[in-house]
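Kindly inspect both lines:
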Amino acid sequence: MAFTRTATGKHRRPRKTGIRTGVNIAGITTVASGVVAGIAGQAFAADAGPASQDTGLTQAIEIGDGIAEHIEAQAQSQETAAAQAAAKAKAEAVARQEAARKAEAAAKKAKAERDAKLRAAREAERRRLNTFVAPISGSYISTAYQASSGLWSSGTHTGIDFHASSGTPVHSVGSGEVVEAGWGGAYGNNVVIKMNDGTYTQYGHLSSIGVSVGQKVTPGQQIGLSGATGNVTGPHLHFEARTSADYGSDIDPVAYLRSHGVNV
């Protein structure tokens, strides 16, 4: 005999299904509540968020502004420093230019002064070389030109005599070149100088001679010492002015000296 059994397997829902369903319903409710709570939390966070986020943003803006101000201050400081450096460099360049200008002006002035002194010295030397002096300082004429006497071979005096004791310095009356220096017969020890103007001067009866032929002499230069050599009656200086080195070409020595500014 066969028995029929109703299957209670997985094809039929257990009786406690309703309980589990209730639990599930409760879970769904809990989940829903959680969702609502989550949504409410998000809403709350959304409501509270702006204030919190605004506080952070303000701080960020304040920090950003501080950094920007610091950077701007640094930039301004650097710009000021650069401007000051440029101004200093420009001032130094101007100072160097001014110093160079002053140095150049000073150099030009110094050169002009040196040139002026040099010209003055040359002019003074030129005047000195063209100046005539007396053959013996502080003396006087003891025998005139063309005085008559048997003491001279020509019968007249061909020069002038200056009073002088032996050993008195004798000077060239001007600039020239010595053409004779030695014994001159009746003139004793004598010196003849060709002057720069082409005339000749003679100095006779010297006790000593201090120059030699070919030597250049200047006004006032000592050429010997007075004496009493040759045809004389006592110590003195015989001075002649001539147009040539030869005897007989004599000219008035007083007029000659005076024409060159020497009063005797």
Remarks:
- The longest strand covers residues 200-209.
- The chain has two helices and ten strands.
- The CA atoms of residues 117 and 123 lie 10 Å apart.
